[in-house]
Amino acid sequence: MFRFTWSWPSLVVECLAGVLLASAVQPVRGVPMRFAIATAGSAFYERVLDRNGWSWRDVGQPELGIAGGLAAWKAVR
Questions:
Q1: Of 63, 44, 62, nearest in space to 54 by CA
Q2: Contact predicate 15/68, CB 8 Å
């Protein structure tokens, strides 16, 4: 089965994943703690679950989405 996200640029997919991850940690108090938990979740996924293996690029790109998602959430609140 072809996933439509396979044709998207990696940066877009990874940033969207980071935004979704940032939205998942919103119940946690404090932006630094949210960022730390989201980063740990992203690193766990890359290290343990990602079939392509560990890559600093695949850790850094979601960080952009996490930071952007947390900033947007804070601006909306």
A1: 44
A2: yes
Q: 16: which 2 tokens?
A: 């969207």
Determine the residue type at 70: L
pLDDT, tens digit (0-9, with 9 covering 90-100), for 31-75: 899 899 988 988 898 888 888 778 787 778 888 888 888 888 788
Cα(12)–Cα(61) distance, integer angstroms: 9
Contact 11, 62 (CB under 8 A): no
Number of H helices, E strands in the chain: 3, 0
CB 67 within 8 A of CB 21: no
User: Which among 49, 45, 59 is positioned nearest to 14, based on CA atoms?
Assistant: 59
Q: Is the pTM of this model over 0.70?
A: yes
Task: Locate the domains of the chain by residue range.
Answer: 10-76
